[in-house]
TrEMBL record:
Residues 1-27 form the signal peptide. It is found in: Cell outer membrane. Residues 293-753 form the TonB-dependent receptor-like beta-barrel domain. This is TonB-dependent receptor. PANTHER family: CATECHOLATE SIDEROPHORE RECEPTOR FIU, FERRICHROME IRON RECEPTOR-RELATED. Keywords: Cell outer membrane, Ion transport, Iron, Iron transport, Membrane, Receptor, Signal, TonB box, Transmembrane, Transmembrane beta strand, Transport. GO terms for cellular component: cell outer membrane.
Length: 784
């Protein structure tokens, strides 16, 4: 660990501990706002106080940001299979949710998805970032966020103040907020997969130890194969989260929290596909469809006939890794949180977390289309080992990445005071300081193997690949032990002071803020390339290259909200934010000592909020201009593009009696306005549809609750050349439960009920990825 990292980490820890020592001297404010109750008369809960993307707690009706909240009951209706899948029901959020429980691509409002991950959207747990950046190669924040009974609710901000109140999140912030025992009681439940092997146990319990002290504990454990049955037991593990809170008489609190995550799940990767046009162009595009032998909804590279893959660890030693471990994530975290009344109206808020994260990413990835196996090809594994093979073959890269160290130390400190001003209004000033120290220690290998071309339990083959290169007896292609081998040991230190003000006078709210992000990047990276290359482009061969550079940026945001009546408000905002590039996203051209360009996003928003009886709605017009540089791991292409997007976002809900319906619609007109490749200027950015929509109805009658969701998207292009069409699609998810006794409930849910194919990703002709096929689950829950 370098000196700067030690200083940043030590300072964050010292600040946090100092704040908690004040806990015995100062009283403090109660915990975070609870999720809205299902019985609230207004369906979007516009009077709910939100804490995400706002300098201080403010109601939705008075805020000048677009924010959605989703509680546990609302989540059930969309029957999500991952945290990223749950985000598909939020207006304005584009979540591809096709990779499983990690490696998901997420963005908002036409901001581009150029290389994967969540570059412009900050994932948070209880107000602190999960990872400093959302697009490290092989590492995305949704890997470490699991849905279970410990979740109280989700707050999702699009655009707006997230440029000032979070680093690397100019597009928005998605905050997963944990229960804290405010509501006493708990539950235990068991869920079984229908038609696939999965058993899961969920539990949670919260209670008061004394009138001023409460605790919560919750989590899950599971075991199985997952819905894409490769006949290997990949699903295994779970998490447990716990916290204890002490409330003081003046409404203040201190909280200690812990998290232990050790989970293993399959990854759903791109598979071979077919095109309606042999040589697609913009004027004659090709539409993606399924390839012979591969059902993209169920296809998997996991197989009992392909387990060991060769690699090289960070010490340079040759290793064998089990491909069938899939995505493994481990985290141990300690959190300290508090809010202290310092007297004379001053409040100090402190939020600290130290986490250790490790894991691995193991899955196959196609290098191109299938082809007829050459004469003399034999099975290299499985029950037919040594026998002749005469079907189609495919060359697959084994994505073998070890997360050696993803640990982080994060701290958020805020000092605020509300002043009465001469005009009769109130001015709230806030000074904040965020410290984030993120380690990225990743070793990646991409050896190439020859496999039977089947999406169900493929076998290794010994023979020639499509270029006439011979494998060894185990199906491994020569030189590919080192093909794409990279080792990174990078430390990202971010120190971010910021200021914000909020002025309230009668129906008017004005707010604005300025943030200074100061980043220091240190460490080293290496990259070795074998004599053969088996995919478009090459990885550069880099020796052990020191990394040392600094980069700073200023962000700001200004907004206003005016209540025309008690039920009608208008708002506007302009923001200038940034997302810092990570080292591996600039790939070959980076030599270690030059600062990497920062990606910037400038946004304008105009909106209206209205409610009448059980109906409420948000309508926001937006415009975003994005400038970014990028290096795509899968295509090995360097880009420097500028994008513009404008559109309209609508979120509405209606509640009457036992019936509730909510939904959203987002229209986006996005365009590439400049690029290194002049042929793509004027085109629609890849993977961004013109419109996405959500409809979520539910009805409660007696002991029954029935509901579901309809989530859909317009067609999009798989490439910036606009030559590949990914067709429009929709999914229907259903949920129903029956209360068989005052404490026991049985539930049935189905995700993608009609088993639709939904293409979300096209990777330069190598493969394409679809959402998962139909999954159904049956559960029994006992509450106490």
């Amino acid at each position: 660990m370098n000196t700067r990292t030690m200083k940043v980490t030590g300072l964050a820890a010292a600040v946090s501990l100092a704040m908690f020592q004040l806990g015995t001297a100062y009283a403090q404010q109660a915990g975070q706002p609870a999720a809205p109750a299902a019985t609230d008369a207004n369906s979007l809960n516009l009077e709910q106080v939100v804490v995400t993307g706002a300098p201080v707690g403010v109601t939705k009706m008075r805020s000048s940001i677009s924010i959605s909240t989703i509680d546990a009951e609302q989540l059930q209706l969309s029957a999500p299979i991952s945290s990223a899948d749950a985000l598909r029901s939020i207006p304005g959020v584009h979540s591809e949710a096709s990779a499983g429980e990690g490696n998901t691509n997420v963005t908002v409002r036409g901001i581009p998805i150029s290389a994967g991950g969540a570059r412009y959207v900050g994932f948070q747990e209880d107000g602190l970032p999960v990872l400093q950046n959302g697009d490290y190669a092989f590492v995305t924040p949704d890997m470490f966020v699991k849905l279970d009974n410990s979740l109280d609710h989700i707050e999702a901000v699009r655009g707006g103040a997230s440029s000032v109140l979070g680093s690397n999140s100019p597009g928005g912030i998605i905050n997963f907020i944990t229960k804290t025992g405010q509501e006493e009681g708990g539950s235990v439940g068991i869920t079984k997969g229908l038609g696939f092997k999965e058993t899961r146990l969920d539990f949670d319990y919260g209670a008061h130890i004394s009138p001023t002290t409460r605790f919560f504990v919750g989590g899950f454990y599971r075991d199985g194969e997952g819905s894409r049955n490769g006949n290997v037991p990949i699903e295994s593990g779970g998490q447990i989260k716990a916290n204890i809170t002490h409330d003081f008489s003046d409404g203040s609190f201190i909280r200690v929290s812990v998290k232990h995550l050790d989970d293993q799940t399959p990854l759903n990767m791109p598979v071979p596909f077919s095109l309606s046009t042999a040589n697609p162009t913009k004027s004659n595009p090709g539409t993606i469809s399924a390839a012979t032998g591969y059902d993209p909804r169920t296809a998997s590279y996991y197989s009992p006939y392909w387990s060991s893959i060769v690699g090289v660890n960070s010490s340079g030693t040759t290793t064998l890794t089990n491909l069938n471990t899939g995505l493994t994530v481990k985290e141990n975290a300690l959190g300290l949180q508090g809010s202290f009344k310092l007297g004379n109206g001053w409040t100090l808020d402190e939020n600290f977390r130290k986490s250790e994260k490790t894991g691995s990413f193991e899955s196959g990835y196609p290098t191109g289309p299938t082809f007829a196996a050459s004469a003399g090809t034999t099975y290299a594994s499985g029950p037919n080992k040594g026998q002749a093979y005469t079907g189609n073959a495919i060359e697959v890269s084994a994505f073998n990445a070890s997360f050696d160290d993803l640990g982080s130390t994060v701290n958020g400190l805020k000092l605020s005071k509300t002043f009465d001003v001469a005009t009769g209004g109130k001015l709230t000033t806030l000074v904040g300081w965020d410290i984030n120290n993120q380690h990225i220690g990743v070793t990646q290998n991409l050896p190439h193997y020859l496999l039977s071309a089947t999406g169900d339990q493929p076998s290794l083959l010994a023979g020639l690949n499509n270029s006439g290169v011979q494998t060894n007896a185990a199906g491994l292609l020569p030189q590919s032990t080192w093909w794409g081998n990279q080792t990174r040991a990078i430390q990202y230190d971010m120190s971010s002071p910021y200021v914000n003000f909020d002025y309230e006078a009668g129906p008017l709210n004005l707010d604005g803020g300025l943030r200074r992000d100061m980043q220091k990047v240190t460490g080293a990276q290496t990259s070795a390339t074998g004599a053969g290359t088996y995919a478009p482009g090459t990885f550069p061969a880099l020796p052990d290259t020191p990394v040392s550079y600094s980069k700073d940026n200023n962000s700001y945001s200004l907004g206003g909200n005016y209540k025309l009546t008690s039920n009608l408000a208008v708002f506007a905002r302009y923001s200038d934010g940034a997302a810092f590039n990570v080292v591996e996203r600039m790939g070959g051209p980076f030599i270690g000592g030059s600062p990497i360009p920062i990606n910037t996003v400038k946004q304008t928003e105009l909106g209206v909020k209205w409610r009448e009886g059980g109906f409420s709605t948000f309508v926001t017009a937006f415009k975003a201009n994005t400038e970014e540089g990028n290096y795509d791991l899968t295509t090995r292409l360097l880009t420097q593009n500028t994008y513009t997007a404008k559109g309209l976002e609508v979120e509405s809900a209606y509640r009457v009696g036992g019936f509730n319906i909510s939904g959203g619609f987002t229209y986006t007109d996005a365009q590439i306005v400049s690029a290194l490749d002049s042929t793509i200027v004027g085109n629609q950015p890849q993977r961004l549809a013109k419109y996405i929509y959500q409809v979520v109805p539910s009805y409660r009658f007696g002991d029954f609750v029935l509901g579901g969701s309809l989530i859909g998207t317009d067609k999009s292009f798989g490439d910036n050349q606009n030559s590949i069409i990914m067709p429009s699609y929709y999914t229907v998810n259903v949920f129903g439960n029956y209360q068989i006794s005052p404490r026991a409930t049985v539930a049935l849910s189905a995700n993608n009920l009609f088993n639709k194919i939904g293409w979300t990703e096209y990777d330069n002709g190598q493969g394409a990825r679809s959402i998962n096929g139909r999954t159904a689950k049956l559960g029994l829950k006992y509450s106490f």
